[in-house]
Write a structure and sequence with these properties.
Length: about 350
């Protein structure tokens, strides 16, 4: 009998054990990959250009239907230049697609409502807004503040910078402010473009008004040149109805004389589970474009806004959001969550 070499049998057993470990590890890895949630995004994208393209597509669609229709993105001011630097090359196609740009918290409310925005933050934003003005794009600023001192300061600072502004006394945008008693720069002129406007009202939550008629009457009694409202009104019974062309006609004249612009709010960077388009089945059968809920705004969900299925919810068919806004006779659209690209970049 041949003498066994020391350790040969044990080496053979260890080799089999090692092989089994490798196979088990490989199986576990495959199972982990198969069972893990789909990542929000796995390929490189230029999220900023994706948003520019989306806004431009919205603008093209709207202006094909109504050439004078206004497109006003809120925030996302870095999209005005190709590299996101105020001194960089301008995004010419994007600028050509928009008629105005909205900006929140420029002088008040950036971190805390009714507290002055840090000068560092204001100074970072101002060059972009001035670039917009230089390119013929009007700037609408919403500061969140109240009290005579802060409100007066907000209006004064924005006027000095050449911006149209609104001092909102609620982050919910649910009230028509009682101060100042008279609308700043009220006038009897007909407002046919944003360049004509001297003031605006931003009123998205009509829950303070018991009926739609009361809501519309309150708006109609104001002398604002531009009014930004939601497409929908919800009554005390929880019944939601869209504003109609007749409703829009009832508020498009200022009591002091002249017609004004009625602009409709629409979020395109998040999906809202209280909107007509929401399908409760999405909670279990989640569309590829639907992301996580915004922890700061219940019911608002991040979306892959470049996805064609999400974009089809927004525009391109009679029941799409933008198309309903156009059918109701609004003069323009105020696009929110434009800065959604920051979420995906982070």
């Amino acid at each position: 009998m041949a003498e066994a070499r020391p350790g040969r049998d044990s080496d053979h057993a260890d080799t089999h054990k090692c092989g089994r470990r490798i196979i088990v590890a490989a199986v576990l890895l495959l199972l982990a990959i198969a069972c893990r949630p789909e990542p929000l995004e796995t390929e490189f994208r230029d999220y900023r250009q994706d948003m520019r393209d989306f806004v431009q597509a919205i603008s093209d669609h709207a202006k094909d239907a109504a050439p004078a229709f206004l497109v006003i993105p809120q925030n996302g001011h870095e999209l005005l230049t190709v590299d996101g630097d105020p001194g960089g090359d301008v995004s010419t196609d994007y600028l050509a697609a928009i008629d105005g740009i909205g900006r929140e918290d420029l002088y008040y409310g950036y971190n805390t409502d009714n507290i002055a925005t840090n000068e560092v933050d204001t100074d970072e934003i101002l060059p972009f807004l001035d670039l917009a003005v230089a390119q013929g794009v009007e700037v609408l600023v919403t500061d969140y503040c109240w009290g005579t001192t802060n409100v007066d300061d907000s209006y004064s600072a924005n006027a000095a910078a050449g911006y149209i502004s609104f001092a909102a006394d609620s982050r919910d945008l649910s009230t028509i402010p009682g101060y100042p008693a008279s609308v700043p720069n009220a006038n009897a002129q007909t407002i046919s473009s944003l360049a004509d406007a001297r003031n605006f009202l931003y009123l998205l939550d009509p829950s303070e008004y018991l009926t739609k008629d009361a809501y519309l009457t309150a708006i109609g009694a104001t002398n604002y040149d531009v009014v930004i409202v939601d497409l929908f009104y919800e009554d005390t019974n929880g019944t939601v109805s869209a504003l109609t062309e007749e409703d829009i006609d009832s508020i498009d004249s200022k009591p002091g004389g002249g017609e004004r612009l009625i602009i409709c709010y629409m979020s395109i960077g998040e999906a809202e589970d209280y909107r007509y388009y929401w399908d409760p089945g999405w909670e279990h059968d989640t569309p590829a474009w639907l992301g996580d809920e915004n922890p700061h705004w219940a019911g608002n969900h991040k979306v892959r806004y470049w996805n064609v299925d999400w974009q089809a919810v927004v525009f391109g068919a009679p029941e799409a959001y933008l198309d309903r806004i156009l059918a109701a006779g609004f003069d323009g659209v105020y696009l929110d969550i434009i800065d959604a690209y920051e979420y995906f970049e982070d």
